[in-house]
Amino acid sequence: MFVTNQTDDDNAWNDRAVHLGVNFLFLCSLFLIVSVLFTFRQVPPLIPFHYSLPWGAQQLVARPTLWLVAALGILSAAAHAFLAASIFKTDRLMAQLAVWIAVLNLLLLTLGVLTVYVRVGPL
Questions:
Q1: How many domains would you assign to the chain?
Q2: Are 27 and 109 in contact (CB under 8 A)?
Q3: What is the pLDDT of residues 8-61, one digit of tens each?
Q4: Which residues contact 91 (CB under 8 A, 6 or more apart)?
Q5: CA pair distance 70, 66, nearest whole angstrom
Q6: 2 in any annotated domain
Q7: Longest dimension (CA), the chain
Q8: Domain annotation covers residue 78
Q9: Is residue 21 part of a domain?
Q10: Residue 89 pLDDT > 80, yes or no?
Q11: Closest CA to 48 of 2, 108, 113
Q12: Does the residue 89 lie in any domain?
């Protein structure tokens, strides 16, 4: 009944680079949520997070900041994935770059959270 002129080449999810990037996004998001969920109670109330500031109280943030970092990272990754899906037909390279920039961003956020865990002791 509904006829589309869409071929398999026009579908963003059939592109190998986009598909692999979205899989990485899903795995990093899942790992980030699970790691925060299972280690949140073991983290002290104040944690060092701003390493570029001088040593002391200026580096410390409250423990719920870990949830904020995870949520903002996942929202950013979802926005990049939807952007990539919407521009894929017109510019395939930009769609692939959007997905892989999101992967890099989420990976760096995950490493930042893991760095906090290593420094304060739950891992």
A1: 1
A2: no
A3: 556 555 678 887 888 888 888 888 888 888 888 888 888 887 777 787 788 888
A4: none
A5: 6
A6: no
A7: 66
A8: yes
A9: yes
A10: yes
A11: 113
A12: yes
81: tokens are 């994935």
Q: How far is CA 3 from the centre of its chain?
A: 36
Cα–Cα distance, 22 to 5 (Å, whole number) = 25
H or E element in which residue 46 lies? strand 46-48
Contacts of 1 (CB under 8 A, 6+ apart): none
What are the C-alpha distances in Å from 7 to residues 17, 20, 92?
A: 17, 20, 14
How many C-beta atoms surround the C-beta of residue 3 within 10 A?
Answer: 5
Contacts for 85 with CB less than 8 Å, ≥ 6 apart: 12, 13, 95
User: At which residue do the structure tokens 């510019």 appear?
Assistant: 91
Which tokens in the block code for residue 91? 């510019």
Q: Which residue has the tokens 């996942």?
A: 74
For residue 102, which amino acid is it? A
Tokens of 19: 């598909």
How many angstroms separate the CA atoms of 92 and 98, rounded? 10
> The domain containing residue 50 runs over which residues?
12-120
- Residues 58 and 50 sit within 8 Å (Cβ to Cβ): yes
